[in-house]
Amino acid sequence: MTNHLFDLAHKSIRHIAPYQPGKPINELRRELGIQDIIKLASNENPLGPSPQAMAAAQQSLAEIALYPDANGFELKTALSTFLQVDTRQITLGNGSDSLFSLIAQAFVAPGQEMIVAQYAFVTYTIIAHSVQAKLVTVPARDWGHDLTAMAQAVTPNTRLIFIANPNNPTGTWVDTETLLQFLTQLPKDVLVVLDEAYYEYAANQPGYPNGVLLQQQFPNLIVTRTFSKVYGLAGLRVGYALAHSEVTDILNRVRLPFNVSTPALAAATAAIADQAFVQTTLAMNQQGREQLAHGFSQMGLDYLPSPGNFFTLHVGEHAATIFQSLLRLGVIVRPLANYAMPEHLRITIGLPHENARLLDSLQKVLYDNRITSVIEE
Ligand SMILES: *Cc1c(COP(=O)(O)O)cnc(C)c1O
């Protein structure tokens, strides 16, 4: 009776809703037998990684019989120069999501409170349950983090607060002034994770906070960034946390020694050195944002604006059907029912021809009767 084995897990763990990733291209290929598929579902960089990062990863394969550098010396040195921080403030992770997990493991005991916002990145919830924390979800304001309400939710039992800036999937963000006010009033023994996965995309917005600078002012602030988004290295899994050196010391005790692979370390180090590639990506993303915004408006569709590389599009009560219909046209986007946003789809900004195909497919699914009737069979 496998049920019994399942029941061996702690109740809070049995209640975790499994993460729903964007559908992999190969999976859709197997299911539908179609070849020409585009994925705009996981906010990856459609340009791929920097060619220099790719070359560095390839060269590093010659060394993969050896364990990686457990201390990530070269990547930390590159980051420390790039960000103007001490290497003793940097923790490397197997993706920034693994750092969220380390932080919770290290600082939150079972029964202690973690605060997140409604509609916040769902990984935080999984992690809260996995450490048996008491999860406090603060209602969103205009889809975004209500920092006033989140500050009011703090109790003597609160250990950790997650803020995604910008948030995925809603694209909402808090400005420097609001964040400063929040951090200033917070008890100094409550840790705050500022998840800046899309920082590079968003940084040019007026009033956009730079967590790295704020961290120097607030020792209880932990800033996380990733190589998965603008740097195009999602498949290699590498991200970093920037924190006070005492927090970093603790994180590195919990961290398993070889958590970032040799190719990931090599590629990330080379990626930091190629900021021209980042600029190319940002320019492409800006064009794509305008292309999609224009297309959505022409179709009369509302969306949540995002400073990142994605849109959250309101398509109404048939969102699940629309998602399925787009799949059949070879276009993978992300349904958001697991975020309790059943009328929205999240769409990553792609290359110009991918954006055009998404718009064209959406037009067909929503308005072309012939295709709609096929779908309704
Ligand atoms: C994509 C994403 C991450 C980054 O995940 P990695 O584990 O670094 O790949 C973190 N937070 C948010 C909000 C994201 O959307």
What does this structure look like?
With 377 residues, the chain is α/β, with parallel strands linked by helices. The protein has helices at 2-7, 11-14, 25-32, 51-60, 73-83, 96-107, 123-130, 147-152, 176-185, 199-202, 211-217, 245-254, 262-273, 275-298, 319-328, 352-367, 369-376, and strands spanning 38-39, 90-93, 113-117, 134-138, 158-164, 191-195, 221-226, 239-242, 302-304, 310-314, 331-332, 334-335, 344-348. 44% of the residues lie in helices and 15% in strands. The strands form three sheets. A seven-stranded mixed β-sheet has the order 2-8-7-6-5-3-4, with helices on both faces. The protein has a four-stranded antiparallel β-sheet with strand order 9-10-13-12, with helices on one face. The longest helix has 24 residues, at 275-298. The radius of gyration is 21 Å and the shape is globular. The structure holds pyridoxal-5'-phosphate (PLP). Pyridoxal-5'-phosphate is lined by residues 43, 95-97, 121, 164, 168, 195, 197, 226, 228-229, 234, 239.
Straight-line N-to-C gap: 40 Å
Poorly predicted segments: 373-377
Percentage of residues in DSSP E strands: 5-15%
Radius of gyration: 21 Å
Q: What would you call the structural class?
A: alpha/beta
Q: How does the major sheet shape up? A: 7 strands, mixed
What ligand species are in this complex? Answer: pyridoxal-5'-phosphate
The total beta strand count reads: 13
State the strand order across the main sheet.
2-8-7-6-5-3-4
Q: Helix count, per DSSP? A: 17
